């Protein structure tokens, strides 16, 4: 389980270190940095997929995603005695992301590419580190990248060997040095990171992918856009917890049940109707709830699942049902929910032990004033 998330220099997250629990609810007012925290977690997962640099470039490049305020916010700035004078930096340009848990930790430091590089929006990876345990130290470090050089510690005798000597600044050691034999620890960590799941694009509009006809095939994991909803539900009925699926539908829509229709489609039988409704006929809220059911009842739960505003399109009456689903899912995997819906947050608190993480803005910076920040050590360039 991930116990600590650290972000430095990304959007409004100037220097944020926060704890994560088994079920964490991230809340706060609009503009407080909730979405930035969600994106930071997703960027870490993109590193394991080899897409981190491209994703940051798509956000406008490093210069557009960096913290836009001063490097340090002292008393004189807060009091107004001194005005902010641009964003001139004394230290190197740096966007740092990291996490750790009981078993392993990872951190990456990105900076600006050289002037001669033909793709100026692509950030360059300056440093990476991977270690065992929660806090980085010399003794527990097992993989390190400085510039183009990657070094790996041998598990047998603790000695170091060179992994790669000319790794591109736009490639991560996580994707290029994770060998199941010579880099087993790095390989294992990468595979666990690749298993993280994120849901923030489950559309319910008339053209939503979930409403279209699709081939029904073995689908133990709902896709990020929900296009394979019918197949994911059929897989839960075949090899997953079919009783929990029926209970989730009954709890939200009393007297209703799901059925796999001809050709692999999904039908919802509702009390009082003469025929079942297909996915194209369902209301936005009903479809959204079924998408969340398919995600949270996955027969192959991930190590970490992150949901951004899952309550969107849902009627307040469905919040207790969603809270029950989230609480049950947290018994199988770690859950992070980003939400500002007080009804859902209250219902979650009644269903499970929740680690509350409230974000606020202070002088343009995202802060979590109500929690004690865990210890964290960034690898040095």
Automatic annotation (TrEMBL):
GO molecular function, one term: ATP hydrolysis activity
GO annotation terms (biological process): DNA synthesis involved in DNA repair; double-strand break repair
Stretches assigned to the ATPase AAA-type core domain: 23-73, 167-345
InterPro entries according to UniProt: ATPase_AAA_core, P-loop_NTPase, RecF-like
Taxonomic superkingdom: Bacteria
Protein name: Predicted ATPase
């Amino acid at each position: 389980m991930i116990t600590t998330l650290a972000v430095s220099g990304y959007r409004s997250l100037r220097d944020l270190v926060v704890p994560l629990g088994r079920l964490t609810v991230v809340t706060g007012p609009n503009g407080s940095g909730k979405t930035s925290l969600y994106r930071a977690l997703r960027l870490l997962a993109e590193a394991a997929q080899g897409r981190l640099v491209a994703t940051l470039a798509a956000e406008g490049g490093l210069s557009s995603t960096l913290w836009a305020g001063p490097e340090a916010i002292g008393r004189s700035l807060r009091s107004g005695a001194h005005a902010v004078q641009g964003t001139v930096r004394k230290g190197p340009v740096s966007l740092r992301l990291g996490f750790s848990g009981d078993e392993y930790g990872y951190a990456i430091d990105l900076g600006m590419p050289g002037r001669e590089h033909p793709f100026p929006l692509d950030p360059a990876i300056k440093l990476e580190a991977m270690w065992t345990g929660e806090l980085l130290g010399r003794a527990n470090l097992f993989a390190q990248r400085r510039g183009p050089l990657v070094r790996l510690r041998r598990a047998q005798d603790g000695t170091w060997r060179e992994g790669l000597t000319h790794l591109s600044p736009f490639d991560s050691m996580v994707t290029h040095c994770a060998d199941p034999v010579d880099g087993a620890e790095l390989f294992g960590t990468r595979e666990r990171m690749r298993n993280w799941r994120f849901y923030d694009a489950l559309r319910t509009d008339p053209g939503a992918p979930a409403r279209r006809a699709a081939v029904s095939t073995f689908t133990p994991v709902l896709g990020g856009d929900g296009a394979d909803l019918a197949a994911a539900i059929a897989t839960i009925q075949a090899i997953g917890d079919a009783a929990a699926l029926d209970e989730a539908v009954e709890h939200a829509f009393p007297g209703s049940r799901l059925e796999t229709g001809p050709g692999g489609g999904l039908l919802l039988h509702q009390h009082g109707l003469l025929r079942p409704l297909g996915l194209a006929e369902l209301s936005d809220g009903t479809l959204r709830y079924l998408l969340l059911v398919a995600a949270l009842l996955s027969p192959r739960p991930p190590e970490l699942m992150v949901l951004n505003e899952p309550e969107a399109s849902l009627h307040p009456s469905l919040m207790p049902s969603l809270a029950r689903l989230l609480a049950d899912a947290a018994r199988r995997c770690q859950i992070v929910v980003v939400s500002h819906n007080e009804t859902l947050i209250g219902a979650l608190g009644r269903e499970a032990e929740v680690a509350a993480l409230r974000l606020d803005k202070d002088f343009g910076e995202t802060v979590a004033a109500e929690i004690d920040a865990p210890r964290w050590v960034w690898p040095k360039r």
